[in-house]
Amino acid sequence: MSRVYNFSAGPATLPEEVLKEAADEMLDYPGSGMSVMEMSHRSKDFERIINEAEETLRELMEIPSNYKVLFIQGGASLQFAMIPMNLMKNKTADYVVTGQWAKKAWQEASMYGNAVKIASSEDKNYSYIPDCSDLMISPDADYVYICENNTIYGTKFKTLPNTKGRPLVADVSSCFLSEPVDVSKYGIIFGGVQKNIGPAGMAIAIVREDLITEDVLIGTPTMMRYKTYMDHNSMYNTPNCYCIYMCGKVFKWLKKRGGLEVMKKQNEEKAAILYDYLDSSDLFKGTVQKESRSLMNVPFITGDSSLDAKFVKEAAEYGLVNLKGHRTVGGMRASIYNAMPKEGVIKLVEFMRQFEEVNHV
Ligand SMILES: *Cc1c(COP(=O)(O)O)cnc(C)c1O
């Protein structure tokens, strides 16, 4: 077997131990004689799987009891619509636009009400996080929205914005479970799971109970009301059973490794290896302002697009794959989520050094 180091932004690398465990249980989920894929979502076995997944996540994130954990299909992008449909009672919400995903969420919300762009970093191709300590919050804003880690641009909020009492809604797709968070500071934390947790096809939304009401925008489908998920333990209809099962395994894997404090420390170590090299290299440069650097997504360039292409191609031959950057940034991007081992980052830097020696004039 020859597994590569996969630096994809998402769907992304998963812990090898988890994949092996799932492989072992593929034909016979212990005692059931069937695969989780073949199992009724109303069965005792699956009920245990979904409840344990939620419990472990609650433990990992220390989620307060007045927050609901909802498993929702449609990925993070469906949340871009569900959030305004469920929360925009005054038909106004404030958006901090720090990249493509925040922009998409803002555009989506604009279809349902007055989505106000209160800050942006578009002026410098989203290479930094704007100062959000004293934002011009709209007087009747139902919530303030951020994308906490910008997957494409490699920036991360280091302090949360001052929302002046409005609920904070945060897309954490690409930093989910990468470090401890204080859930009580948020109204909603949500993310697609395919970046840092599990397979594609699902989002997890952690929603403060008082924000889940029947008072939603007219025409909001049953399947797009948070209340539907809350009232039916995320099983009003058939959920993404296999994804929930895999996420549950990853939660246990994180717990076994010591939880989110330990993940944070390991993620800082991994990111430092790469950033330290980038700061010392004469060939490669990071594209993000230092204070805004993400621990999860690290974009870098040589400044010469044909050399970038050569790097991406030769790295793949060396077993380091999916390093091509997003088309709006160019160059390269290394996504180094929880499941990327430190050895993968060391090997990447080793290869970058070699490449620099040969190609730098
Ligand atoms: C990938 C990503 C999304 C989109 O996720 P889908 O599940 O494909 O809808 C949204 N936000 C962020 C920050 C992402 O990284």
Automatic annotation (TrEMBL):
GO terms for molecular function: O-phospho-L-serine:2-oxoglutarate aminotransferase activity; pyridoxal phosphate binding. Residues 4-347 form the Aminotransferase class V domain. NCBIfam families: PRK05355.1 (NF003764), serC_1 (TIGR01364). Its cofactor is pyridoxal 5'-phosphate. Pyridoxal 5'-phosphate binds at residues 76-77, 101, 151, 171, 194, 237-238. The modification N6-(pyridoxal phosphate)lysine is found at residue 195. It catalyses: O-phospho-L-serine + 2-oxoglutarate = 3-phosphooxypyruvate + L-glutamate; 4-(phosphooxy)-L-threonine + 2-oxoglutarate = (R)-3-hydroxy-2-oxo-4-phosphooxybutanoate + L-glutamate. This is Phosphoserine aminotransferase. Homodimer. Its main location: cytoplasm. Pathway: Amino-acid biosynthesis; L-serine biosynthesis; L-serine from 3-phospho-D-glycerate: step 2/3. The keyword Amino-acid biosynthesis applies. It is an enzyme of class 2 (transferase). Belongs to the class-V pyridoxal-phosphate-dependent aminotransferase family. SerC subfamily. GO terms for biological process: L-serine biosynthetic process. It comes from Blautia liquoris.
